[in-house]
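Need residues for this backbone.
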């Protein structure tokens, strides 16, 4: 907080400390709304306010009509002046004030507007699920799309089918541009023929299956195009969604997951030339009461997916059962790359008709009457519109969408190892989500996190990590602990190895240790000074000629 305050003060001083500003003609009605009869002036440090007021009144022939209303920032010499616009044109006063040698800068007193990142989609007002997870505040940072490295983020849901021609889904549909559709050839050499739009294990092509309402709803929660004046918004406004259709039987589930793993592996190996940068899969399906030990192949796939960088999100049972005891598939699988989700209502409380488990279930997400993309025609025809869905089927895609959104954050180091260390990167994203849930008493003790999805908290955590760990070489804090122990917190501009050294006041080296700063973790050194004689010493962190140091006593 101190650093931010100093930066702000420096910024103010720099902004207001320049020479005479550029002049331009200003009409009183131009720009945003301003308060009539007021201007803000920033005086030179040695300027006298009364003298400035007298000069302005004389030059505008106003006698004492221009006066001080208040002083918002005394230390920075910023004052709010008032005048009568019926006798003095605002633009004239502004021009005269800009030329005064005692005034650094001057402006009208404008009214600010709230900058809520809310989409213009006509049914947005129904989407209280997005408000619950603080999506609008997260959208201030990102609405999805690509990683800082330029990788197009892809997510997918295992479904029987989806209506991808829905106008809120079409813009975000994924296509395999290395494949030529319908030519019967495996053009990209990935082992799948004509997988231009995804994969259908049952039909062995990219057929999107039935125009299933469930799949349309799930895809809409993850990634309905936002701010396009159409229907609703997804967690991501911009993301690519791969079609996995006719996925119902376990062999189809396994094949669908295998296709995803192969596409992500191919992307990693070719540095993005082929394959797809799939970061998460969604399974709003499952088997009630099934135990992980009876489905070893299915469960093993989550580790396989995780190794290439894909997190999997699973919806738990829609019944009040303890998954740890009674079982459930897939949410009783123990993979660290599987996030198991149950359902909360509009207040963030666990709905009783949802599974729980202190070991198996990770967090909650909205699932109580969620508005999303749908088909208004109950018959064979398709009429795009919105629909309602309840249950954990709605909860899981909120988390799947969250994974994709975090990959799009403008924090390059957060996902810089997504291709060379995909499993590490995937776990980092998982940890950010699970470590930053919104606490709920109804989830405490029945989930691993005790909370429900909070996009804003996750986004803020990334901001803090990205902005706080990489910076000018500096020893941030030295803490004197009992028994001559010291804790030294530091930051570095790179993640290369540095040397930690301790010298006496004669410059003699008393201790040396190589340290390697960690990405996305607090950097600190634990030093035992017990063997040092009493006196004053210098500790330093350095690399080459760049060194930061502080004195410390040993008594």
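Answer:
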């Amino acid at each position: 907080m101190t650093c931010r305050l100093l930066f702000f003060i420096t910024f103010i001083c720099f902004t207001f400390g320049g020479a005479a500003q550029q002049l331009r003609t200003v009409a009183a009605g131009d720009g945003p709304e301003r308060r009539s009869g007021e201007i803000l002036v920033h005086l030179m440090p040695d300027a006298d306010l009364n003298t400035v007021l007298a000069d302005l009144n004389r030059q505008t022939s106003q006698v004492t009509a221009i006066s001080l209303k208040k002083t918002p920032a005394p230390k920075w010499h910023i004052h709010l002046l008032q005048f009568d616009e019926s006798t003095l044109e605002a633009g004239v006063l502004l021009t005269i004030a800009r030329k005064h040698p005692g005034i650094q800068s001057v402006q009208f007193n404008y009214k600010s507007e709230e900058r809520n990142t809310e989409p213009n989609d006509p049914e947005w007002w129904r989407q209280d699920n997005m408000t619950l997870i603080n999506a609008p505040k997260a959208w201030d940072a990102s609405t999805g799309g690509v990683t800082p490295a330029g990788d197009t983020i892809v997510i997918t849901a295992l479904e029987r089918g989806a209506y991808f021609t829905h106008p809120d889904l079409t813009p975000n549909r994924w296509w395999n541009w290395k494949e030529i559709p319908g030519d019967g050839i495996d053009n990209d050499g990935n082992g799948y023929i004509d997988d231009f739009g995804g994969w259908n294990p049952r039909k062995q092509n990219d057929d999107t299956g039935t125009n299933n309402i469930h799949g349309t709803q799930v895809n809409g929660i993850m990634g309905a195009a936002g701010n396009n004046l159409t229907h609703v918004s997804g967690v991501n406004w911009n993301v690519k969604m791969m079609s996995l259709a006719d996925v119902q039987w376990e062999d189809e589930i396994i094949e669908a997951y295998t296709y995803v793993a192969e596409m992500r592996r191919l992307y990693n190996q070719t540095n993005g030339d082929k394959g797809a940068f799939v970061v998460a899969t969604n399974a709003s399906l499952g088997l009630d009461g099934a135990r992980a030990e009876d489905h070893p192949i299915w469960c093993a796939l989550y580790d396989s997916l995780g190794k290439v960088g894909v997190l999997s999100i699973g919806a738990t049972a829609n019944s009040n059962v303890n998954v740890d005891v009674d079982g459930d598939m897939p949410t009783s699988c123990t993979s660290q790359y599987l996030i198991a989700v149950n359902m909360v209502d509009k207040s963030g409380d666990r709905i009783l008709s949802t599974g729980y488990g202190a070991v198996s279930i990770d967090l909650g997400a909205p699932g109580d009457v969620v508005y999303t993309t749908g088909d208004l025609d109950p018959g064979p025809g398709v009429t795009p519109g919105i629909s309602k869905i309840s249950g954990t089927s709605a909860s899981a895609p909120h988390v799947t969408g969250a994974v994709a959104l975090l990959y799009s954050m403008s924090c390059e180091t957060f996902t810089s190892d997504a291709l060379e260390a995909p499993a590490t990167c995937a776990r980092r994203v998982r940890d950010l989500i699970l470590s930053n849930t919104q606490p709920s008493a109804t989830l405490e003790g029945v989930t691993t996190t005790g909370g429900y999805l909070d996009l804003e908290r996750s986004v803020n955590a990334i901001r803090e990590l990205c902005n706080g760990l990489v910076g000018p070489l500096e020893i941030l804090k030295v803490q004197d602990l009992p028994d001559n122990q010291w804790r030294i917190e530091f930051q570095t501009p790179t993640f290369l190895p540095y040397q930690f050294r301790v010298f006496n006041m004669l410059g003699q080296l008393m201790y040396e240790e190589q340290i390697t700063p960690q990405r996305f973790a607090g950097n600190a050194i634990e030093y035992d000074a017990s063997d040092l004689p009493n006196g004053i010493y210098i500790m330093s962190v350095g690399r080459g000629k760049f060194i930061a140091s502080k004195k410390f006593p040993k008594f």
